[in-house]
Specification:
Helices cover 42% and strands 21% of the residues. It has 307 residues and is an alpha/beta fold. It folds into 2 domains: 140 residues, Rossmann fold (3-Layer(aba) Sandwich), CATH 3.40.50; 160 residues, L-2-Hydroxyisocaproate Dehydrogenase, Chain A, domain 2, CATH 3.90.110.10. The chain has a 6-stranded parallel sheet with strand order 3-2-1-4-5-6, sandwiched between helices. It has a 3-stranded antiparallel sheet with strand order 7-10-11, covered by helices on one side. Helix 1 runs parallel beside helix 2, helix 4 packs parallel to helix 5 and helix 6 crosses helix 9. The two termini are 31 Å apart.
Length: 307
């Protein structure tokens, strides 16, 4: 198994480190346009392998030649969101970056599975899908796992329980219109709607929607990377180990949830082939309307792209 991570910033480098620590590949390649950065970080990660007792190759490069034959390509490249910057503000710059990265990666690894982490997530995943020419089950985005992890964290904080007992679902676009589903979010199997009043649930839903910008506002000059890297690596692990995990991911819909020709977060089954099934859960009228609204916002952004 060979895995390439494109982008050696905080998200990319931490993703590569977690992949190495979990020994999910025989070879990990970290790629970035900045000279010396991927080489230095890859060497640093490799020098930790004797301590961690992980035996695999870690390479840093400014060229895509070293990525040839990758089984999985994770795209994290792009500028980070800054305070006061909306996800849409990122779109024009990052779409050009993701387009270039996808073209270069696909030329060297035509059989790879592509996971997109760059923001605005749903739109960037669409860019990678269109540019790659791959089937939709091989191009998808990391968003729902992160959003659900944030929702789970806030629920655990509120109820003062272990995060291990909390499960949560967040659908829709990765942004202000995401759709946390309290009805499908549980603590030890008990719906949180039975454990918290509506005001508390609404507060946690809002904090989940604002989860990314909350961290941006704290950091001032950067954005989250520990939780995003953990989230994408959980997806990588599901593919590498053919786990058939049900995870919320940004997937290209062709009629599912009455939506078409757009990327939006929905539960999927992840295995060695990538997305092996899109899981359609029953939504009530309010939830379906919120998901449709979120998908429409993504489609409006996609319509502005110049590919």
């Amino acid at each position: 198994m060979k895995i390439t991570v494109i982008g050696a910033g905080n998200v990319g480098a931490t993703t590569a480190q977690r992949i190495v620590d979990k020994q999910l590949a025989n070879e990990v390649v970290l790629v970035d346009v900045l000279e010396g950065i991927p080489q230095g970080k890859a060497l640093d990660i490799y020098e930790a392998t004797p301590v961690e007792k992980t035996d695999l190759n870690v390479t840093g490069s400014n060229s895509y030649d070293e990525t040839a034959g990758s089984d999985i390509v994770v795209i994290t490249a792009g500028i980070a969101r800054k305070p006061g910057m909306s996800r849409d503000d990122l779109m024009n710059t990052n779409s050009a970056i993701v387009k270039s990265c996808t073209e270069s990666a696909v030329a060297k690894s035509p059989n790879a599975i592509i996971i997109v982490v760059s923001n605005p997530l749903d739109v960037m995943t669409y860019v990678a899908y269109k540019v790659s020419g791959f089937d939709r089950h091989r191009v998808f985005g990391m968003a729902g796992v992160l959003d659900a992890a944030r929702f789970r964290s806030f629920i655990a904080m509120e109820l003062k329980v272990s995060v291990e007992d909390v499960n949560a679902f967040v659908l829709g676009g990765h942004g202000d219109s995401m759709v946390p589903l309290p009805r499908y979010s549980t603590v030890a199997g008990i719906p949180i709607t039975e454990l918290l009043d509506k005001a508390a649930v609404d507060r946690l839903v809002k904090r989940t929607r604002d989860g990314g910008i909350e961290i941006v506002n704290f950091l001032k000059t950067g954005s989250a990377y520990y939780a995003p890297s953990s989230s994408v690596v959980s997806m990588v692990e599901a593919i590498v180990k053919d786990k058939k995990r049900i995870l919320p991911c940004a997937a290209y819909l062709q009629g599912e949830y009455s939506l078409r020709d757009t990327y939006v977060g929905v539960p999927v089954k992840l295995g060695k082939k990538g997305i092996e099934e899109i899981i359609q859960i029953k939504l009530n009228a309010e939830e379906q309307a919120a998901l449709s609204k979120s998908a429409e916002e993504v489609k409006q952004s996609i319509a502005k792209l110049k590919l």
